[in-house]
C-alpha cells in the first residue's frame, strides 16, 4: 500500500516538474522574442557555444574513461613518463 502511494506521489511530482519546466521554457522564449534582433542573435550564439562546449567536454570525458585502462596496462604508452623527474638541459 505504501509503495503504491509512494509511486503515485512520485509520478505526480514528476508531472508537476514537467509542467514547470515547460512553463519556464515558454516564458524564456517569450522574453527572448521581446529582445531586439541583435540581442536575440547574441542569445542564440551564446547558447550554441554553450552546447558545443558541453558536448566537447562530454566527448573528452568519455574518451579519457575509455583510454584509461589502455594507459594503465600498456607500459609502451607511458615509457617517457619515467623521464619526468630527470633534469632537462636544452642543447644549444
Walk me through the structure:
This protein is mainly α and 92 residues long. It has two domains: 1-34; 36-75. Helices cover 76% and strands 0% of the residues. It has two helices and no strands. It has helices at residues 2-34, 37-73. The longest helix has 37 residues, at 37-73. It starts with a helix and ends in a 19-residue tail after the last helix. 0% of the residues are buried.
Please describe the structure with a list of short key phrases separated by commas or semicolons.
single chain, 92 residues, mainly alpha, elongated
Summarize the structure.
The chain has 92 residues and is an all-alpha fold. The protein has helices at residues 2-34, 37-73. Helices cover 76% and strands 0% of the residues.
Kindly state the mean pLDDT as a whole number? 77
Number of strands: 0
Q: Note the overall shape.
A: elongated
Distance between the termini: 81 Å
Alpha-beta classification? mainly alpha
Biggest sheet statistics:
none
In angstroms, what is the radius of gyration?
A: 26 Å
> How much β-strand is present in the residues?
under 5%
Amino acid at each position: 500500500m505504501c509503495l503504491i502511494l509512494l509511486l503515485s506521489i512520485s509520478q505526480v511530482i514528476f508531472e508537476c516538474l514537467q509542467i514547470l519546466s515547460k512553463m519556464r521554457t515558454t516564458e524564456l522564449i517569450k522574453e527572448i522574442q521581446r529582445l531586439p534582433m541583435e540581442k536575440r542573435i547574441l542569445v542564440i550564439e551564446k547558447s550554441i557555444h554553450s552546447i558545443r562546449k558541453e558536448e566537447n567536454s562530454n566527448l573528452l570525458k568519455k574518451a579519457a574513461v575509455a583510454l584509461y585502462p589502455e594507459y594503465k596496462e600498456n607500459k609502451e604508452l607511458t615509457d617517457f613518463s619515467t623521464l619526468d623527474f630527470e633534469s632537462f638541459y636544452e642543447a644549444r
